[in-house]
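Hi team,

Filling in the usual template for the complex we talked about on Friday. All components are listed, including any nucleic acid strands or ligand strings, so the model treats them as one assembly.

SUBMITTER: L.P.
PURPOSE: interface mapping
COMPONENTS: four
RESIDUES: 254
SEQUENCES:
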Amino acid sequence: MNISDAAKECSLPTKTIRYYEEIGLVSPGRLANGYRDYDEDDLHKLRFLQRARGLGFSVEDCRVLLSLYEDRNRASSDVKKIAKSHLVEIERKISELQSLRDTLSELVQSCHGDDRPNCPIINDLAR
Amino acid sequence: MNISDAAKECSLPTKTIRYYEEIGLVSPGRLANGYRDYDEDDLHKLRFLQRARGLGFSVEDCRVLLSLYEDRNRASSDVKKIAKSHLVEIERKISELQSLRDTLSELVQSCHGDDRPNCPIINDLAR
DNA sequence: ATAGAGGTTTCAGCAACTGGAAGGTCAAGC
DNA sequence: GCTTGACCTTCCAGTTGCTGAAACCTCTAT
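RESULT (copied from the run log):
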């Protein structure tokens, strides 16, 4: 299967797929004309990457997850460890953003937003 | 005031301060020896940037906010518009992360995390 | 023969810094 | 006067995860 069909199949841009190859995540075979040729195994990995990235795992996490995915004997605790620490990261980000939102939304609400120059938002930033 | 004192004063790394100068956000004077020399005005701007970046405004937002900050006649609605759209962005990110967290936390919970190879997380990613 | 829709590589750029190298400057201590 | 160490300077490269564009090759259809 050529790259654009693989792209459709896995919901990834061709650019991204080539990039994943460049950094050693997927290595499709090549046809006589030099075109990349994706088999079922490659497609599986690409779908795996698409899902894992979609869940916010870093590319380096994905590299490890892929190798665990390919290792029929890995312990589920190895996978769980990565997922858990990613989860902690996500939760940290959420609460950080929530406190940002609270501060910012107070500022926005206190600003009348009219033609006059007085602005509590700017005042706060400049304080 | 030299750069490292300014850095302490504004809670910013010197590298960042030089970077802000490079992209035209702050332009301190120079001493005879070539050292940067920050006056109160520069420090105000740096503190402003520190706060605004801390609130998650992009550097380009900060550029606009700074110019509004310096414009004694700007309308508060100009500021409010930027802050509001930033707020929307933050709220979008929060709910995105929340749904990520929900999915991931289900997966993590369903994985027993022991020595055995069977792993619902990997299974899900590979599906 | 040619047009166009694919494919290939390589380089540059995005955001917002951060690290490091190579070198100039300054104050203190001997 | 000299050295040491802590500053300062500039410039270049790297980070993350792609994305755009240029220059070129290949295949298919007309």
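MY TAKE: Residues 63 and 109 of chain A are 45 Å apart (CA to CA). Chain A has a mean pLDDT of 91.

Thanks, L.
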